[in-house]
Design a protein that fits this description.
The complex is a heterodimer of chains A (307) and B (306). In chain A, 44% of the residues lie in helices and 18% in strands. Chain A contains twelve helices and twelve strands. In chain A, helix 6 runs antiparallel to helix 8 (209-228) and helix 8 packs across helix 11 (273-283). Chain A starts with a strand and ends with a helix. In chain B, strand 3 (45-49) and strand 4 (53-55) form a beta hairpin. The termini of chain B are far apart. Classes of the chains: A alpha/beta (307), B alpha/beta (306).
Chain lengths: 307, 306
């Protein structure tokens, strides 16, 4: 089978390099960074850290070079989904496309461009060290299921999950991938903006009673929006948040949104808290605090344009 | 008669008062830093912008070196108030003291340290401090005064007359609380949002086109503040939302002090502004989830300095 990873940043690279190790999978990567593309084509895509892997694959920044693929794995930052899938959709006219991105609302964007969409959530993480080389920080599970409005077939989802698992990225095919996705988005939306706005690590946010209460209020709004869609979360975000705050887990972790803010990169706020707010409005569930932190983080992004 | 004024705290507002009042009365200045007092004694104080003034002032960094005065204008930051007033305790028995701090509660802090007659004041004037000896007068908006406890209204009027004769705007009110609360709600919202976003007070604060626009949050925060005022029995002066829209339309893109403070990683006035409003809401049993969040976030930001 032929797979194209769309957006070969840290998470995309984990899928691309691992899948490239399988004899029966041909991997392509589409990414806008020409130095990254050139390094991958010259030396392969190397993962270091939690696993040491070098994948041989074909990378391109020119979408017209992509052949017809059986699967797409979209791993761009959420705000780049539309542009990336618009450019690459021609490669997936006979294929199915999975999102493994952060936030909610990505599958809706994909379905505007391709016919069969897979809803995905992934927990492994890493960072790009230099063009062609990615640090694999944490291993973790991936969940894939049909996107209800434009579903891929069960056979397709199982085939992709089986290949990822065999490649070293444990992946489950499920009938309903929303519980895993909403658990992750609620966790991220409750913790990321609070870290980003204050500059505090996850552990320090959680040990301040007033900020921990804000985190809980954000979780409660997210849970209400999930419940209104009939989603039963597969784990309680509150427990995950407290667990992560332990000194031996992620006390010192700076939320990715805080890392974005410190580097003055646009954040994924529109697909985290902004996404919860959008779903809330469609369902008639009020989300005043998610709306408030969305406005504050977007204000922060705006301030960079003034200086 | 007010012949001798002491300006206590020579930041932007204190410097604007000192530079103008020195044109009509004898002015002394109490500074926090001794170098600041030395430079003022050596070079005087310049006011530029809407006024063009040179002033001779007598400055000191300790109350021991201050001679008696009739009016003390306490213009230090809210975060320094307790320590500053403590140093004045037992002195200057003949003086009337006027507080111009943001937020609520400055008068009560001063009262704990002395029996001086007190005046409440809030100021809308603004400026930019260019150095220890130069301040630019930017907005010539007024200072409003009113009696605190049993200080006669006549005393407030006398101070207004003095301030106006020095070239600044001022007005006396029998009850300052409506104006004080309008400004409290304005500051609790605008200063907090500016501190967290890094935005100056510009058009973003009045933008309400979409649900994630900053103006929607600003209006929500102000509505919460108005509900607290109503429950506390205060009928507001100006509408804080209209103050917000008006200020953003003026186009000066003012940088609120709380934004300046977080950028310089200094303690902010969040306790006497946002904290004061949250505590009033608790007493009045009015839920203000947005303001509570803003308060927690600004306090969290302060905690991140260390």
């Amino acid at each position: 089978m032929r797979v194209c990873v769309v957006g070969c940043g840290a998470v995309g690279s984990l899928f691309a390099a691992n899948l490239a190790g399988l004899d029966d999978v041909e991997v392509w990567a589409y990414d806008l960074s020409q130095p990254h593309v050139d390094a991958i084509n010259a030396n392969g895509l190397r993962l270091v850290g939690a696993g040491d892997v070098t994948g041989r694959l074909q990378a391109t920044a020119d979408a017209s070079e992509l052949p017809a693929c059986d699967f797409g794995i979209v791993a761009t930052k959420a705000m780049h989904t539309d542009g990336a899938i618009a450019a690459t959709a021609h490669a997936f006219t006979e294929g199915a496309v999975a999102s493994v991105q952060n936030g909610v609302g990505n599958e809706e964007v994909l379905a505007r461009h391709v016919r069969r969409v897979i809803r995905g959530t992934t927990f492994p993480a890493g960072k790009i060290l230099e063009p062609g080389v990615v640090q694999w920080d944490v291993k973790g599970d991936t969940t894939l299921g049909p996107f209800e409005a434009s579903p891929a077939t069960d056979g397709e989802i199982e085939r992709l999950a089986e290949a990822c698992t065999r490649a070293g990225m444990p992946t489950q095919a499920v009938a309903d991938a929303r519980p895993a996705q909403w658990r992750k988005v609620i966790f991220n939306a409750a913790t990321n903006p609070v870290g980003a706005l204050t500059g505090l690590t996850h552990g320090r946010v959680c040990e301040r009673a007033d900020l921990r209460a804000l985190v809980s209020s954000l979780v409660a709004e997210g849970k209400a929006v999930a419940a209104a869609q009939g989603i039963t979360l597969d784990a309680d975000p509150e427990e995950l948040i407290d667990h992560a705050a332990r000194p031996d887990v992620a006390y010192e972790h700076k939320a990715s949104m805080l890392q974005d803010v410190e580097a003055r990169r646009l954040t994924e706020i529109d697909f985290l808290n902004g996404g919860i707010g959008r779903f809330g409005r469609e369902l008639g569930v009020p989300t005043p605090l998610n709306d408030a932190v969305t406005a504050l983080v977007k204000g922060l992004e705006e301030s960079w344009r003034l200086s | 008669m007010i012949d001798r004024v002491c300006v206590i705290g020579a930041g932007t507002i204190g410097s604007l008062f000192a530079g103008h009042l020195a044109q009509v009365v004898d002015v002394s200045v109490l500074t926090r830093r001794s170098e600041h007092a030395d430079t003022l004694n050596e070079r005087g104080l310049r006011v530029t912008g809407r006024s063009d003034l040179a002033a001779r002032v007598r400055a000191a960094s300790s109350p021991d070196s201050l001679s008696d005065f009739d009016l003390g204008i306490i213009a230090c930051k809210g975060t320094d108030l307790e320590a500053v007033v403590d140093s004045l305790a037992g002195r200057f028995a003949g003086a009337t003291m006027m507080t111009v701090q943001n937020g609520l509660g400055a008068e009560a802090v001063v009262r704990r340290h002395g029996e001086w007659p007190l005046l409440s004041a809030i100021t809308f004037m603004s400026g930019t401090r260019h150095s220890d000896t130069e301040v630019e007068y930017v907005l010539d908006t007024p200072t409003w005064l009113g009696p605190y406890e049993d200080t006669p209204l006549e005393r407030a009027r006398e101070v207004v007359e003095l301030i106006v004769s020095a070239g600044l705007q001022a007005e006396a009110f029998a009850d300052l609380r409506p104006a004080q609360w309008s400004k409290l709600i304005f500051n609790a919202t605008v200063n907090g949002v500016a501190a967290l976003t890094g935005l100056p007070h510009d058009g973003h604060f009045a933008a309400e086109a979409g649900p994630g626009d900053l103006g929607v949050l600003v209006r929500g925060l102000m509505d919460e503040g108005k509900a607290v005022a109503a429950a506390a029995g205060v009928s507001l002066g100006e509408d804080p939302w209209e103050m917000n829209v008006h200020a953003t339309q003026r186009g000066s893109a003012h940088r609120p002090s709380m934004l300046e403070d977080v950028e310089a990683r200094r303690p902010t006035e969040v306790e006497s502004i946002n904290g004061a409003l949250v505590r009033e809401a608790e007493q009045a049993d009015v839920p203000i989830p947005l303001q509570r969040s803003l308060y927690a976030l600004v306090r969290g930001k302060e905690a991140s300095y260390s």
